[in-house]
């Protein structure tokens, strides 16, 4: 049974074990012989001209594993797929990152990858939405857009000589405010057609970053791309907004109502439960967990309890078995 | 300072009769303080995934010596560091304030840190993560002798758990010398009274040694005997480590 760090009673242990066994029987069987650890020899037919891939090495004419994981074979290629590997970016991935440095014409973001990602000023839509060249003045005012520790959503643009490049050339990307950032193992977030989700019934936004960073926050209406500059405001006011002087209207705008905050916490706890159980994180499962907690009239903090985790595992086993029957 | 005329400076040399013998650590039936025989190791326990926040981690318990190791990375090297086409390994060994019998002595151990670095460096395939750094932080929770070998073995498990490419797991065992006796896996009392010590760090599957540390007086036959003892013990320790990893892999596969 998967080792889950939960204080379970004996009955809960039995129930959880039963649910996990049921899920295991439903999932496609993995060949246990294929799992290897470091320095295990991998059986190959040398006559076929084997290609040694990632996670393998040659020792006295024998192919040995240099990683703990599962041996995969694609035609002549033999490689080891690590079970606990770091996030490996692909072009087009939606990622969430935290700004670690404001550099010259660029921001550096921590995205749970081996190296920090780079978001260029030129790859970024300006806050006012106007399409224009980025001038020296824009460069001076980069901190007005993003500063250190800001959470940013972007898309992987490609790999350049100076690292991984991101872009945020759409209104759905940009700075994330008023919400919770959660970190889960990257392999729990599968690449899908849609990573931006709006849960209308709860009034919250959910962004599933491919890098294992998940954002749960208040729903924000995306503004139109082309917004005219207000003539009444002088250039200095536009470029250097006074952060200290905040009007009451602006304070009201930034205030998140209690009901929404509760839903954000529920969604966040649903993600935490899935991460604890090691289940793939998808919108429908998260919705199901929120609905389950609401139907049980469960307090938000009780969602992280052992009983609820066991219940979620049982419900997931039921859901998958019913899906299999339908097929 | 002028001495008295014609007087020679007095020197002290102990006479053989006044030289007191060291109190024997072992009783008559050649048993050690914890009841083991000379060539018997302490029971070992390993477990991976002890720290959730780390990329990989491991907990080790060998006798009363308890160690926890966290591995972070590979992550981008600091700006101050120059470009490197191979990865960097950064090791840090520290003791808790309650690790030793004397309270409040917990601190970073620079010597242990550099020895841990040397022991692991040969086993990690550094070419697989250029321009990045892997940080290994070891914390000794309870010190009961043979701390460094336990730290090294635990660190190699943590690296494997973090998915860092390695040629082989690293196992480490130390031997202490008492007159003519060789004692494997010494406890704190034995380490305090030893004539010399030998520590071997090896990759058991490859039968390669990544580090050999010898202190004190050793004759060549004694060193050979000590090395053989250590290598045999490393092979046994590696079996326990491998079974721990196998268990972790099969669990996460489920």
TrEMBL record, chain A:
It is found in: Nucleus. Pfam families: KH_6, S1_RRP4. Keywords: Exosome, Nucleus, RNA-binding, rRNA processing. Its main location: nucleus. GO terms for biological process: CUT catabolic process; exonucleolytic trimming to generate mature 3'-end of 5.8S rRNA from tricistronic rRNA transcript (SSU-rRNA, 5.8S rRNA, LSU-rRNA); nuclear polyadenylation-dependent rRNA catabolic process; nuclear-transcribed mRNA catabolic process; poly(A)-dependent snoRNA 3'-end processing; TRAMP-dependent tRNA surveillance pathway; U4 snRNA 3'-end processing. Belongs to the RRP4 family. This is S1 motif domain-containing protein. It comes from Glycine max.
TrEMBL record, chain B:
GO terms for biological process: nuclear mRNA surveillance; poly(A)-dependent snoRNA 3'-end processing; rRNA catabolic process; rRNA processing; U4 snRNA 3'-end processing. One of its GO terms (molecular function) is RNA binding. Keywords: Cytoplasm, Exosome, Nucleus, RNA-binding, rRNA processing. InterPro entries: ExoRNase_PH_dom1 (IPR001247), ExoRNase_PH_dom2 (IPR015847), ExoRNase_PH_dom2_sf (IPR036345), PNPase/RNase_PH_dom_sf (IPR027408), Ribosomal_Su5_D2-typ_SF (IPR020568), RNase_PH (IPR050080). GO terms for cellular component: cytoplasmic exosome (RNase complex); nuclear exosome (RNase complex); nucleolus. Its main location: cytoplasm. Residues 7-17 have a biased composition (Low complexity). Belongs to the RNase PH family. This is Uncharacterized protein. The gene is LOC100816271.
